[in-house]
Amino acid sequence: MSERLRARFAQANGEGRAAFVGYVMAGFPEPEQTVPLLLGLEAGGTDVIELGVPFTDPLADGATIQRANEVAVAAGVTFTDCLAMVREARSQGLAVPLVLMGYDNPLLAYGEERAAADAAAAGADGFIVVDLPPDEAGTFREACAANGVSFVPLVAPTTAEERMGEVAAVADSFIYCVSVTGTTGGAEVPPEVGDLVSTIRRHTELPIAVGFGVSTEEQVARVGKVAEGVIVGSAIIAAIEGGSVEGCVDRVRSYVERVTGRSEAGA
Question: Is 61 a residue of the active site?
Answer without folding.
Answer: yes
